[in-house]
Amino acid sequence: MGLPALVAVLGAALWAVALVGAHLACVDAARAGARALARGEPVAEVRAAAALSAPPGAEIVISMTGEMARVTISAQVRPTWGRMLPPVHIETSASVAVEPGVVDLSAGGEAVGGGRSDEGGSPGTGRAAGGEGQETGRRQGSG
Predict the structure, then answer these.
(1) Residue 141 CB coordination number (10 Å)
(2) Rounded distance between C-alpha atoms, residue 51 and residue 36, angstroms
(3) Each residue of 85-94: pLDDT tens digit?
(4) pLDDT digits (tens, 9 = 90+) for 128-141
């Protein structure tokens, strides 16, 4: 009589550990992507940096507004042993101040992040990082 209850509690505990692991993967992916975006990396490289740590099938949203770079990762996670259970939605984001000299195309091509054009170099010397301010996409998972 006590064995089924023990199995149920063990299953719930394992599921909780898996959810925490997926959340941490989303946090790591958002941080990596936000750091790359703040450095002025191209959007494709930002997405690749975030996709390395993100759970399979995660949605990656990249945006840059003013002097802040933001990457949001969201994923639907369900246990591998309980396909009939509903998925749990996990979403996390990371925001980082943009490095000086990085160009934000959504701001009309002006340098953001504290860079000034009279400090040796022009505002257009950084790479464009935000595209039109926001870009969304899905990582293609293997499972």
Answers:
(1) 12
(2) 12
(3) 788 999 999 9
(4) 333 334 444 444 34
Two tokens, residue 98: 């943009």
Rounded CA-CA distance 68/49 in Å is 18
Do residues 86 and 67 touch, judged by C-beta distance below 8 A?
Answer: no
d(CA 93, CA 70): 7
Nearest to 18 by CA among 85, 77, 92, 91: 77
d(CA 142, CA 112): 37
- Helix, strand, coil shares, percent, the chain, to 5: 40, 25, 35
CA atoms of 49 and 125, how far apart (whole Å): 23
